[in-house]
Amino acid sequence: MLVDNVLNEAVPSRHRASLLSMIAFVESVLIGTGYLVLGTLMDGLGSGAGMAAYAVVPLLACLLWLPVLLRGASVTTDAER
Fold first, then answer.
1. What is this structure's pTM?
2. Could you tell me how far CA 39 lies from the centroid of its own chain?
3. How far apart are CA 45 and CA 75, in angstroms?
4. Could you write out the DSSP letters of every residue in 8-61?
5. What parts of the chain have a pLDDT lower than 50?
């Protein structure tokens, strides 16, 4: 959602639709890959342990994002400058 808002303001309209479509495609591929990984983990480790192992992914994402949040970084567009 944030990416869409930033792109709507920063990218010219003739390129915006293609760029947003490519972003949606990449997101869909990542979601599909995540389901395949989750299924493989659940087959290999059992359902409970597989879900627990897969839960490490969002935890890692949050830990990697924490320094950005603590630093207070923000996205500015041309309209805000």
1. 0.60
2. 20
3. 41
4. HHHS-HHHHHHHHHHHHHHHHHHHHHHHHHHHHHHHHH-HHHHHHHHTHHHHHH
5. none
